[in-house]
Specification:
The complex is a heterodimer of chains A (228) and B (186).
Chain A: H1 3-6, H2 33-60, E1 68-70, E2 73-75, H3 86-94, E3 105-110, E4 124-129, E5 136-142, E6 157-159, E7 171-176, E8 183-186, E9 198-204, E10 221-226
Parallel strand pairs in A: 7-8
Antiparallel strand pairs in A: 1-2, 2-3, 3-9, 4-7, 4-10, 5-6, 5-9
Chain B: H1 5-30, H2 39-44, E1 53-54, E2 72-80, E3 86-91, E4 97-103, E5 108-113, E6 121-128, H3 129-137, E7 147-151, E8 156-164, H4 171-180, E9 182-184
The chains are: A alpha+beta (228), B alpha+beta (186).
Chain lengths: 228, 186
Amino acid sequence: MSETSLRPRVTSGETNWYENELPRVIRPNRSHPVRTLTAISLVLVLASLLGISSAYLVIEREQPLNAVTIGPWQAYPKAGTTEADPYSVAIYTRGAVIPLASGEGLALVARVDSNEHLLDPTCVYRIAGQTPSARLWTLTAVNGRGDLVETLPGQVHVVSQNLLRAGDGTFEITAAAAPHSGNWLPLAAGANASDGLRFVLRLYDAPVTTGAALDGVSMPVIERTGCP
Amino acid sequence: MTLSPRFTLTVGILATLCLAAVIHILVVLSIPRNVQHSAYDNIATYGIDRQFNLLPDVKPGQEALPDLDPAMKHAACRFQLADGPVLFDASIPVSFWSIGLFNAAGEAVYSLNNRTAGAERLSMLVLTTPQLSILRENPPENLEDLIVIETPEPISGFALLRAYVPHSSKADEIDRALRAARCGTI
């Protein structure tokens, strides 16, 4: 493009007569069809790769953008409604997920513990505190893809009605693969750390089914108490 | 006109990013239209339309639909309002049950649970506005007792009935109640 400017400047002689220094922008342009074609196709290929891979990553993460976050818990009150954003529409329709509608309840998902560490199915967790008021709630352990996993006793959830509680209504649940006394939420037997772990808390018939009402409610903490 | 290499590179990068953003948006928006198995399609595999079909128990490795609660039993019914109004009628003897109405895209249209239903028995009528005005001309006796849900469009969709299983000894009773639940014409 600018080979001429790299040439040593000839201060005398006849060649200098027509090689006057034109500003670059008005210098005549010799067309390079191959170079232009290569540049355009490079832009097209790079843009497609970038666009498709970024879309795939966002959808594959399965975390809608408009989440309401309370400590480690996230809820998506708008997902699965007509007000949902395009990302959660894509995530929910791709997974064929039927959400809990607002008149039924609200599902909250935890992917990390209260110290922001990713949940690990080989560890032992203590889930303690209290939930927003609800007529019934269930706590389920699923793997990183959201599927249920085989556990030692065959049970994969705990229900609010069967919990042992302290005098003030708070509870303490131990989530572990091996049996524990008290409230035990069985985790996957023989799981690897790479399988991933999520806790899903479903509040049924709760007043907090809209996002605004979720501000300031108390949710249980998730503490890692031990890892092998 | 000749451009400097640096200017050409900047234009190239900007063009790439803009085009990538356009492609990203197009991909995200096109996913719902190109999904192979929507929830509406999946439910068809459990039985015929306009009838509550009991979904198998939610157990590891054999979940009927993703993201269902293992503490519940579920029954689903597909319907098309173009074929006429749909009457839901169920009596489920448990402390908690709920029903969600979804359109074919999986968006919640209406939902209620046994407390908001105001009665132990679920009786709900879903119809379009023209169907309701036809029905008003010759109303059935119990129209006043029904929860009437009017939709502007004759939607296709499905209803998902969730019933809490407090103890496995009640499982058979709940199964019978869910099978007996009606999802059909008036």
